[in-house]
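Explain this record to help learners:
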Amino acid sequence: MVIARSGIARIKCQCADCIINPMDSEIIFAVEESPEGGYEARALGYSIFTQGDSLEELREMVRDAVHCFFEPEDMPEVIRLHFVHDEVISA
């Protein structure tokens, strides 16, 4: 399903309620440490989730997930990992 918005063709993903913009050249993942150990990554704006025991494994898993999610012609040029670190301090 293609949706036209502001002159940009957008493709409605069949597996989720996300919108894929073929003109996007970057996808951003929020990365957090997993409570069970390792790391979890969640794509912002897309239904892509993955995890890895180490940062190296996470990077491989993120690349694999992106390659599985996008068609070659819609593949983003850059995958950005944004590391989220929560810190609790006393008041």
Remarks:
- The beta strands are 2-5, 8-12, 19-20, 26-33, 39-43, 49-52, 78-83.
- Residues 28 and 79 are 6 Å apart (CA to CA).
- The chain has one domain: 24-91.
